[in-house]
Amino acid sequence: MPGKIPEIDLELWHKASDAERAPIAAELDAALRSTGMFLVSGHGVPQAVIDDYRATAKRFFALRREVKAQYAIEAAYDGGWLEMHPPGGVGVPLNEGEEAPSAPDLHESFYSGPGHRTGDERRDRFNYPANRWPAELPELRAAADAYTTHMVRVVQAVNEVLAVTLGLPEDFFTSRAQKATWTQNASWYPSYASIGEVARGQFRNGPHTDLGTVTLLSRQRGVGGLQAWTEQDDWFSPPYSPDSLIVNLGDLMELWTDGRWRSLKHRVLPPSPAAPDEELLSLVFFFETDPDTLIEPLAAPVGGGRGLSPAYARRTVLEKLGVPPESIPEAEA
Q1: Which residue among 167, 185, 203, 280 is the one 20 to 30 A from 176 at the CA level?
Q2: Cβ atoms within 10 A of the Cβ of 220, count?
Q3: Is the full-model pTM beyond 0.70?
Q4: What is the SS3 string spanning 240-307?
Q5: Rounded CA gap, 230 and 211, in Å?
Q6: What is the number of other CB atoms lying within 10 angstroms of the CB of residue 62?
Q7: What are the per-10-residue average pLDDT scores of the chain (333 residues)?
Q8: Which is it for strands 311-312 and 265-268: parallel, antiparallel or unpaired?
């Protein structure tokens, strides 16, 4: 059985004394050292806001392809529509023995981000790419904005919990995320009945880690749903709580904690003939930090002692997305 995935009630955390927080933080720290995942409840996001965004995003995915194609992403860091390519292909093995798909993932996505602007067109293009809202569905922008307003609030509350858990000042992460880069992703996973047989080793979303600091996930329960991986447990299905959000730590947080905490490896299983009509729609909020933040791995005993090298936040993300380093604007001091 997998190790315990804790659930943090943000409302209770805010009311708790230092003494009451200590055992909660200890349990959270243990989980993040091995898995990089926990749940948050008491987050204050109205269910109606979640439901509206999910339903509106689904209406976007139901539009004709030629309509959606007007909003197709033009770069890996861009906003807009990411098309699902047809099934096919074979998997290739990873070091741990699981299969990673060389065939395309089986989902469509729509990406949006913050509206920050600096006045420097080149820097804004890489850090805060313009959103591409569909004129055919104006309610999508309103639904996304309502949802992401809550996500920004919740992720900063999570950042405060993480800082306290590390024994750092509560604003350690939030003070470095005043104009943070982030991406809100609505991902639609179509049914087995609509796709048919898939290739061996192909997934709705193949094995990966997230690139940023913290990811907030609103998921739906499914046969072809989320799985996480650790060395001790291999692949397992994390607990599902309809009133909670999942928190995944990303690569930047593993770097920041010098390996004390883990970036969560996870995947979404392929559609299953056991549930041929199952469709899922996940709302995934990928949070980073202020783009020019120099992430200096925390020294032991707070940090994990891996000896990782400092790196600029947004540059690191863009390079992992395949952006040529020479084209990325230099970080400003």
Answers
A1: 185
A2: 16
A3: yes
A4: CCCCCEEEEECHHHHHHCCCCCCCCEEEECCCCCCCCCCCEEEEEEEECCCCCCEECCCCCCCCCCCC
A5: 18
A6: 11
A7: 82 96 96 94 97 97 95 91 62 38 77 93 93 96 98 98 98 97 94 82 85 96 86 87 94 97 90 87 97 97 97 95 91 77
A8: unpaired
| SS3 of residue 215 by DSSP | strand
CB 137 within 8 A of CB 60: yes
For β-strands 245-249 and 214-218, DSSP reports them as: antiparallel
CA–CA gap between residue 5 and residue 245 (Å, rounded): 12
Comparing C-alpha atoms, which of 214, 251, 247, 269 is closest to residue 31? 247
User: Topology of 9-327 in CATH?
Assistant: Jelly Rolls (2.60.120)
State residue 227's pLDDT score: 87
Task: Kindly provide the residue ranges of all beta strands, DSSP E only, lying in 10-143, ordered along the sequence.
Answer: 37-41, 80-82, 91-93, 99-101, 108-112
Phi-psi bin for 117: left (phi > 0), alpha (psi -120 to 50), beta?
beta
| Token digits of residue 14 | 């805010």
In 3D space, the residue among 218, 264, 295 whose CA is nearest the CA of residue 49 turns out to be 218
β-strands 80-82, 108-112 pairing: antiparallel
Structure tokens at 43: 């987050």
* Phi, psi dihedrals of residue 246, rounded to the nearest 5°: -90, 140
Instruction: Identify the residue whose tokens are 């659930």.
Output: 7
The Cα–Cα gap between 93 and 186 comes to 28
Whether the CB-CB separation of 229 and 98 falls below 8 Å is answered with yes
Amino acid at residue number 281: L
Is residue 297 within 8 A of residue 257, CB to CB? The reply is yes
Residue with tokens 């104009």: 179
The secondary element (H helix, E strand) that includes residue 80 is strand 80-82
Residue in 98, 63, 99 with CA at minimum distance from that of residue 83: 63
Cα 102 to the chain's mean position, in Å? 21
Q: How many CA atoms lie within 13 A of 24 on its CB side?
A: 20
For the chain, state the CA radius of gyration.
Answer: 19
Residue 70 is given by DSSP the state G
